Amino acid sequence: MPTDPVPAPAPDRSRTWHGVVSMVASGLMGAAAGCLAIALSSRARAYCDAGWDAGGVAELTLLLPVLVVGFAVCGVVVAMLTPGRRPLLRMVQVVVVLGVLVIGFFAVRGTVDGYPGDSGLCGPDNVPPWWPWWLPA
Question: Given pLDDT bands bounded at 50, 70 and 90, which one contains residue 12?
């Protein structure tokens, strides 16, 4: 008497769907973080009148595509490195890493230390007064 084979369980499509959505969301958040880093650095440079052009328009505009793509890739990579976690926890880790990258970019490129600013609104370190003291610059 032949036995019927046991049917294979259906694949869990919700896990795949959550993974795709979180990867796309991570990439979009990374691109937005890249734009935020450029905008923040440009605003700080324009406020302090630091750089050879107002707000570092030429330099930061050339960095915009590189930074947007680079931050988007970083967001996706961080999301891929945490595959077993829930999508919300994955997003928290992506936001933290992207926040560190934005602050790091501002500290390196946004405040041109030692450049003589002409606005008189900032000190010799070219850190604008609206930047929180507890964040590195």
Answer: low
CA dihedral 95, 101, 102, 105 (to 10 degrees): 180
At residue 23 the predicted structure's pLDDT band, cuts being 50, 70 and 90, is confident
CB 30 within 8 Å of CB 71:
yes
- Which residues neighbour 129 within 8 Å (Cβ) at sequence distance 6 or greater? 121, 122
The percentage of the chain sitting over the pLDDT mark of 90, rounded to a whole number, equals 26
Sign, CA torsion 73/75/76/82: positive
Q: What six digits make up the tokens of 58?
A: 């030429």
DSSP annotation string for 48-84: HT-SSSGGGHHHHHHHHHHHHHHHHHHHHHHHHH-TT
